[in-house]
Amino acid sequence: MQPYLDIFTRVVNDHLSTPRPVTQAPQLDHLSSKLDMQLHQHGADLATLEQCLKDYLDYNPDSSQVGFFKQLYAGRNEPAVIGDWIASLSNVNMHTYQVGPVATLMEREVIKQWRALVGYQQGDGMIVPGGSQANLIAIMLARHKACPTYKTEGASGARLRAYVSDQAHYSSQKAANILGLGTDNLISVASDNQGRLCPQALTTQIEADLALGYQPFYLGLTGGTTVTGAFDPVQLCRQIADQYDLWLHIDGAWGAPVLFSPQHRHLLEHASLADSFSWDAHKLMGVPLAAAAILVKEDGLLEDCCAGGGDNYLFHPDQYSHLNLGPASLQCGRRADVLKIWLSWKSLGHEGFAKKVDTLQELKDYCVEKVDASADFQRLASAPYLNILFQFKPANLDDEVTLAALNTAICQTMAHSGGPFVDYASFQGRSGIRLILANDRTTQEDIDHFLSQCIVTGQSLLAEFV
Ligand SMILES: Cc1ncc(COP(=O)(O)O)c(C=O)c1O
């Protein structure tokens, strides 16, 4: 192990001590000529491996840097990184208590704490590789409730329909495909001008579907949408779910951490009214990928829905079998992703995550003020959370197609010059720059710098677009 540890230490120290751009945005042909991706018959020596690791760190974007505004994660949760490394060293498997007793107890504690934050007095939960799998399990639970024989007998002819808003993450589409519902039976319900699902449009759609003989069974809300950070109205939707006997899920993959903050948890008020809840630790909590959870209000339902098999060799009826997490999981082998979550939570406490939410919300308010005060920008959506969607918009330019192309070019040009690294997105027919604030090391000066870079880059490109 020692020679590899020596490489590891050198590569990590070099990475942490050498300044570099947030992204080198390398062209594919440059990468292909620079890096040897091929695997060969004979193994490589240690020096080659060391260089490969350096290249990996150098040519991938550095999401720990302040200039990384592109995705719903940024910065570095240091205790979580250490937890991630130690999880690999120990290589515990989460299916049985016997092969991961400490990790199993940690996962039980983390799930209990997350459930309490949502407001579930009882229930279950499971750490999963991401919000996509959490949303998939939510739909599976809903189907299990609506059609208990689906698990054993398969489709019975029921024409099931699920509902999300037109701002919901695409993972629900994937789930409708995987679960055999058919993506046409996942209905996108209109959202309002703030990106929140419209209850009235939902009711109208459900009534129309009932008249056509469909069986509505699932309503998926989002707490913190991917593009604008909107929070769907939970209480009203609970009433609709009760009226039509729907499972109510909240996808809190991005927005759930507001529940840590006494100041901002009102954004997810009534979260406990949902039957299930998705929570990504690898987004705002800053835990390295992959780390997420599905939380369920009803005790035992997760296992009832997911369990099957493995009794002949894995799930032995021993004194600890009641602690085995495997039966309620969709996976057999499962990494101890809990360690990085648990370790950073142990290190920061609830208050550490609350402070992160509060700091970033304050920074968001500052940024929104600057955008609104600038004659060069126009905001495209309200910003209740940490997404700010805005356009660089010269006064004489109104054509949305041209504005979309200009704003896309701004993002790409800034990336090619080393940053800031930010994405573009569209909302209700208009496209702009989607700034995500997820790194609490970001300062007001960083925001000023970012916005001025957008203006300078936009002005330099303008001639190409008018
Ligand atoms: C609201 C929301 N839900 C779910 C997901 C999917 O999560 P994951 O990438 O962890 O699968 C995302 C990803 O961006 C998201 O924004």
Q: What features would you describe in this structure?
A:
The protein has 466 residues and is of the alpha/beta class. It folds into two domains: 83-345, Type I PLP-dependent aspartate aminotransferase-like (Major domain) (Aspartate Aminotransferase, domain 2); 349-464, Aspartate Aminotransferase, domain 1. Helix content is 42%, strand content 13%. It contains 14 helices and eleven strands. It has helices at 2-17, 28-34, 46-59, 78-90, 101-118, 131-146, 150-153, 171-178, 199-211, 234-244, 301-306, 338-373, 400-416, 444-461; strands spanning 124-128, 160-165, 186-189, 215-222, 247-251, 276-280, 292-296, 377-379, 387-392, 423-427, 430-436. The strands form two sheets. It has a seven-stranded mixed beta sheet with strand order 1-7-6-5-4-2-3, with helices on both faces. The protein has a four-stranded antiparallel beta sheet with strand order 8-9-11-10, with helices on one face. α12 packs across α14 (444-461). The longest helix is centred in the last third of the chain and has 36 residues, at 338-373. The chain is globular. The N and C termini lie far apart (60 Å). The mean pLDDT is 97. Pyridoxal-5'-phosphate (PLP) binds at residues 72, 130-132, 169, 171, 222, 225-226, 251, 253-254, 280, 292. Pyridoxal-5'-phosphate binds at residues 72, 130-132, 169, 171, 222, 225-226, 251, 253-254, 280, 292.
